[in-house]
Amino acid sequence: MSNLRIIFILFLLSLNLAISAQKITSISPKQIIGGKDELLTLKGTGFGATRGTSYVSFFNEGNSYSDATSGNELNYLSWSETEIKVAMPLAFSNKVKVVINSKDYLSADTLKVKANLGYRKVYPLLYTLLTDNNKNGGVSWFVHPVYWNNPLIKQAIADVVQEFRCKTGANYIIEPLTKLVPLSLGEGMHILAPDTSLGVIGYNDKLWSSCILGADVFYHNQTQLLRFNTKQNWYYGKGQPPAGASKFRYVLMHEMGHSLGLGHVNELGESMFPTVTLLPSDKWCSRDTITLSEAKAISYYIAICQNFMFRGCGITTMKPNVDCKDVFGLSLGTQDKLNDAKVSIFPNPAQDYIYVILPTQNTNISAVLYLKDIHGRIHLVSNVQNETQVLLPQDLPNGIYMAYILSSQSQYIFKVIVQR
Ligand SMILES: [Zn+2]
């Protein structure tokens, strides 16, 4: 055999080896949110033409990789020799693993999981939802008198609630707890209170309930508690807490994040990092805002809470919060009256324009229309009269908006769906 032929055969052999070697060459995206159906693509070689008993495995909160049972439950959108597409489940940041014939293959890159939404079932995705629990659009948190009567603490709670209302659309309001009750989920109220016997710094308890209607089972949070350990040296202000003190606003942000569906992450700098006081979170707890990833994850969850189709057991959807700064729900008393007023907006869903019709008995009435998204951002301001056609901005994304029509006498609020 000539040397050339040997080299050629060696070349073929090495080519064959390269093709059959299992390897994850890339993951995309490199940053992701878990538990909200975001797509993760793994590229590489030797994955197998079909999935068979192979699966993708992720690092988890228990500091181990998920097993075959979890791997088989995932939503695989496609699987081929060179590419896997999978809906991203809850996970902690780390390398991603593909298990082929019981052998592990780790990605070279680390996948950063910036936020996680908790679910009951990963495929099809099933959450425990929030509903119109207080029959006033959302959830009333009843604040214990020790907190309500302390202006510093009350302000801290109001600010954190406003942060979630304005950045995620969560319809949470706060009300005073006027009767003393045990700190128990059995009281049927969402209670925010200090707790003298709590073993941890802060805690979010949930009591879920289900309603069965035909083949549908709907899961929702019936009551929740947010409890805070009285033995901590609490700091109620903004910014960096003094040395040795625990920042109440930050711990509340973390626990309220849980109440809105978030799980933990191991990403430094995120509010849902498992430890909330001292190292390492004291490096970023000076922040008084939730992060972009947290806002995205919760907004997604809230949109589902606002749009589910299930009706039964008196369950209705959470309503968009009309004025995100209205943390005490002061405007809620008049909302029902406004909605059956003789003002109409159509078509709804709308495409390029809406018609606004004001009451005809007031022929000279003029008003201003504001179109806001669920984050409270204004997308359109327009003067309207008795009957006005309003063109919608061309770049207005599809979605749900709140139309406010303000005149000198009254305020009307409508939900408008834009669908193009
Ligand atoms: Zn936590």
Describe this structure in words.
Helix content is 19%, strand content 34%. It is built from 7 helices and 24 strands. It has a 5-stranded mixed beta sheet with strand order 12-11-13-15-14. A 4-stranded antiparallel beta sheet has the order 1-3-6-5, with no helix packed on it. The N and C termini lie far apart (70 Å). The chain folds into 3 domains: 19-116, Immunoglobulin-like, CATH 2.60.40; 127-307, Collagenase (Catalytic Domain); 341-418, Immunoglobulin-like, CATH 2.60.40.3080. It has helices at 3-20, 68-73, 145-148, 151-168, 248-259, 292-307, 335-339, and strands spanning 23-28, 31-34, 39-45, 55-57, 76-79, 83-87, 94-100, 103-116, 121-122, 125-126, 139-143, 172-176, 190-195, 202-213, 216-229, 234-235, 246-247, 344-346, 353-357, 367-372, 378-384, 387-391, 399-406, 411-418. Mean pLDDT is 89; it is low at 15-19 and 334-340. Strand 23 and strand 24 (411-418) form a beta hairpin. Helix 4 (151-168) packs across helix 5. It is α+β, with helices and mostly antiparallel strands and 420 residues long. Bound molecules: zinc ion (ZN). Zinc ion binds at residues 254, 258, 264, 274.
